[in-house]
Amino acid sequence: MSTATETATDVARETSKDVADFWFDPACPWAWMTSRWIGEVQKVRDISVRWHIMSLSVLNEDRDLDPGYREMLDKSWGPVRVINAARELHGEEVVKPLYDAIGTRFHPGGRGEDRHNVLVEALAEVGLPADLIRFEDSDAYDESLRASHAEGISLVGEDVGTPVVAFNGTAFFGPVITPAPKGEEAGRLWDGVVTVASYPGFYEIKRTRKQGPVFD
């Protein structure tokens, strides 16, 4: 809905933008890095972004994994469940601000092991009801969580993780980047990623990561 300060031209310009769909797991630091990049892309390219949840816990639930990684995934249900419950009960518009509030604490804030308190604080910051925290350990909305996850992963296949980005008929995993580029550099990376990913026979480009996420 437009505000009193928006003109008809402003609204028309917003609705005419190309739309990118972004699937994320809030616990993943690499998805966080990519989300910061795409936020920069919005400043320099005429796109808008729709935010969706996916889940590394769902993606890996039937796989034989290292016990330490399995423990991490078990703990990762809570954040994505809370975001999904907030979406179900309060609308799509709460997904991005709640992700920002959680992710800022988890990733640059270094509080990934303090998940319950982070969720409580994030709900308060966004102005959502505190009792949404009850969904941290509840499977009440897991059906829609799995549906959102399946929608994103169906575009790129089971051999990838989070994030997934879809844009004008092109979908891809990643990019995995650090630090997140800013300004026109972010726009140039976007142009390049969309170009290579749009080629029907393009599947993978990769090199060994030599550093972890740089939160700046």
Automatic annotation (TrEMBL):
* Xref: InterPro entries: Rv2466c-like, Thioredoxin-like_sf
Which Pfam families does this one have?
A: Rv2466c-like
Protein's name according to its UniProt entry: DsbA family protein
